[in-house]
Amino acid sequence: MPRDIATELIHHAYQPPAGFEAPQPAVHKASTVIFNDVAALRARDWREKTGYTYGLHGTPTTFLLEERIAALEGGRYCALAPSGLAAVALVDQALLSQGDEVLLPDNVYGPSLALARGELARWGIAHRLYDPMDVAGLAAMIGPATRLVWLEAPGSVTMEFPDLAGLAAAARARGVATALDNTWGSGIAFRAFDSGVDIVMQALTKFPSGGGDVLMGSVVTRDAALHERIKLTHMRLGLGVAGNDAELVLRSLATLPLRYAAQDRVGRSLAQWLSTRPEVAQVLHPALEGAPGHVHWRATCTAAAGLFSVMLDARYSRAQVDVFVDALQLFRIGYSWAGPVSLVVPYDLGEMRSVSARERDHLRGHLVRFSIGFEAVADLQADLSQAFQRAFG
Ligand SMILES: Cc1ncc(COP(=O)(O)O)c(C=O)c1O
């Protein structure tokens, strides 16, 4: 019987140095790696994990983290990047060339779109946005220049959960590669490769770190040739990660399933409570009945991240919503998620979504996103209550 990932992350095959049988891995830091003779220098290939060549191309610490992230995602090969966004850029640069087109979901992580509008456009790579809730629509959009389809489940900020397997199958049927930004699922909520995607990227900055103190990204594949392509670009771009950062993520991985479950429990409890509040028009949490894409979440997932948004009623002014957010004391105003401190960000959907998406019922009002930390649920609920009272009376 295959072992649960919670067990696998702790009892992963790790060979400690002889005579020092500690399960905690060592932190190796190096730029230079010494070769004993010229023959060794000439024999070692940086692409092979059989030997070390230069700190940028891997140390025992980063190789171990790569193995564990690949196991977490259910993949075979992993490349680490210095941030989640760098991992997105790595995939784009490895797979796309001048004249190619990439398709992005309308609710894609904002900086991924900024990258497409900026650098990719400058390099002659086109992009178009597709409706992630319309599989047939994506299938119809794929053209002769389309080389890559990005997927996100759920989408950033507005949290619609797509038919992931349907979207991946539509791309595969036309011979187009798919890359999933799996930062929300984090290898815990669902088995990403089971949906038929080719590449699974994750911002390790969020759940795998869990401390709010590391930036890192990963790109996992099952296919050796695809990994080789990614690895070549990774090497040419010089995307190394630091040994101490890798160690922080390795240390946190053992508690990832527990932290994910705890934040899920508190997040669902608060999301449920918020859905009963008169100030809230809609809770955008994929595990809640009636949330956009809930049926797909139910068919795909066994858990949910402690990250969700609410639409505050359109009858309030933006200034009132700002008073609400400013009045929160435990929820601190700031980007990112999955750390110990609960966070809140009000978003102006303005140009963030296509016109047709903005007109959908679930996006009427003012969007506020919450990330659940490790505080007690009763304290978080009391904080929300007092802020509602202060802002809306
Ligand atoms: C869905 C998603 N993908 C990627 C990233 C990028 O991660 P990083 O902050 O490590 O660049 C983020 C960060 O917020 C994110 O939310």
Describe the 3D structure.
The chain is of the alpha/beta class. The chain folds into two domains: 5-253, Type I PLP-dependent aspartate aminotransferase-like (Major domain) (Aspartate Aminotransferase, domain 2, 3-Layer(aba) Sandwich); 256-392, Aspartate Aminotransferase, domain 1. Helix content is 37%, strand content 16%. It has 14 helices and twelve strands. The chain has helices at 5-8, 38-43, 60-73, 84-95, 110-122, 135-141, 164-173, 224-237, 243-253, 256-274, 294-300, 318-327, 355-358, 377-392; strands spanning 77-81, 101-105, 126-130, 146-152, 177-181, 199-203, 217-221, 280-284, 307-312, 332-333, 343-347, 366-371. The chain has a seven-stranded mixed β-sheet with strand order 1-7-6-5-4-2-3, with helices on both faces. A five-stranded mixed β-sheet has the order 8-9-12-11-10, covered by helices on one side. The longest helix has 19 residues, at 256-274. The radius of gyration is 22 Å and the shape is globular. It binds pyridoxal-5'-phosphate.
Question: Could you give a short description of this structure?
Answer:
This protein is of the alpha/beta class. The protein has 14 helices and 12 strands.
